[in-house]
Amino acid sequence: MVLLFKSDPDDTRGWTAELARRLPGVEVRTWPDVGDPADIEFCVGWAFPPGSLRGFPNLKGLQSLGAGVDHVFRDPDLPEALPIARIVDPYMTEDMTQWVMLNVLRFHKQDPDYRRLQAEGRWDELPPPSWRDRRVGVMGLGELGGHALERLRYFGYKLAGWSRTKKRIDRVETFAGEEGLRPFLARTDILVVLLPLTPETEDLLNRERLSRLPKGAFVINAGRGRLLVDEDLIAMLDSGHLGGAALDVFRQEPLAADHAFWKHPKVVITPHVSALTRAETAVPQIVENYRRALAGEPLLHPVDRRRRY
Amino acid sequence: MVLLFKSDPDDTRGWTAELARRLPGVEVRTWPDVGDPADIEFCVGWAFPPGSLRGFPNLKGLQSLGAGVDHVFRDPDLPEALPIARIVDPYMTEDMTQWVMLNVLRFHKQDPDYRRLQAEGRWDELPPPSWRDRRVGVMGLGELGGHALERLRYFGYKLAGWSRTKKRIDRVETFAGEEGLRPFLARTDILVVLLPLTPETEDLLNRERLSRLPKGAFVINAGRGRLLVDEDLIAMLDSGHLGGAALDVFRQEPLAADHAFWKHPKVVITPHVSALTRAETAVPQIVENYRRALAGEPLLHPVDRRRRY
Asked: What is the mean pLDDT of chain B?
């Protein structure tokens, strides 16, 4: 009865203590101190190195420590039948929605322009866009995108959503698939990207797609860095076609010190903090999944291997 | 049948055109082109100079162009029996709530710190405060404060409200009067000020009151500049007792070029644009109040002269 935990070294302690507390009788080991690989029955964490899971002959389940599981599928030797779960935590979902709302309001309320005017010491009233006419579009209509749209609805915006397969959401115009992408982007002033990263969504937001957004549109990405082609975003910001971007996720994290995003006047960066997985709210479902994995029962919040999310 | 309009010179035209269109047969004059003072039956606007309204012998009503009417009571010669109305416009209320939400989220999500880290090219994750523990307090529980609290409720914060007289609001801890001020401030991490300016509220937020807020608290003011003592706010920001301020209103507007707020690293300024009165949404109630004033009926959204709001 051994659980193996792997996360960033600096936030391991709280997690392993909480797991040990809630799983009396279970030994919690921390990567890379694996011990005998045959002991490991359940893995919890981020980005186990490719090939490592294959080396645990008695592994019965893998719990991703976040909502996204693209890190799991980077392993070409991922054991075929291994049940995989992701975290779906209402606490974290609310955290994400608040980050999304901050950035939608930032752009809707012309805050970057007002920050610049303040820095210049200028008292200028800008023509204010109306919330009634503001078209916000959300890509990804799962837990996070659905929750963000629910909150956005209270603000009176014109809402749309895009997903791989068609969904119906009250008072939201929904689009789906490749053929829905152009009309969805063409009607979106503020684009919120909450897609999972899969082979189908990688580089989805390239120059051609970004150019479908109306002039002056804003891009908010809290999905994954690889959904967006950095150079294409920068080119569209520099040409004036796009009005700004707020980014929490990047192709490489931490973002390289010489990356153009850092100093770009139209780019707002947060260091992948939009919604942090917290031990206190996430551990109960992990504990339940440990129990289920060992009992051979279906996991909570299972990942579909075919869809990769 | 003459209506006299007065606003900022640069946004007069849209208003007078819209008023004329909706009031066929009524002559709309624009300050200072008053013509014969005996013609004027209804005044609409901002800050008629002290004594000017007294000079219209047939004046039957005054419509303030905004939610606040402190500008009306600066006139010591205000005719005693003149009915006064303010604008209560759901469009404008929503605008204000969005400005409030932007600033609550700005401080809750540590955005000023993340802007500074971006400027320094630093990828640092700050310890994230939990929305479940965040204590937001709203001063002023009228149309604007009540609406802001309704929206804030969706975000899961711990909410409180303060007003002159005790009010009950679902899932909001309410405080009232002088004796409620200390406990209200002591439990508030993010203070939202939406009070009217009256002799009782002027300079309400001075050093003594601001010092009741917990260390690191934030102040958001969209009420009126004179509610807050500028030097006291700056002293509390500089001492580190307060974490930041977002201000849309100022004792003098436009804010003087040499005012310390402009360059203060903890102060976010917008130039009185949190909620603009728009002709298209506000004119219908003005038209109705014109009709009522001439018919001697009670106005919509009347101002209580004793309370001064």
From this structure: 96
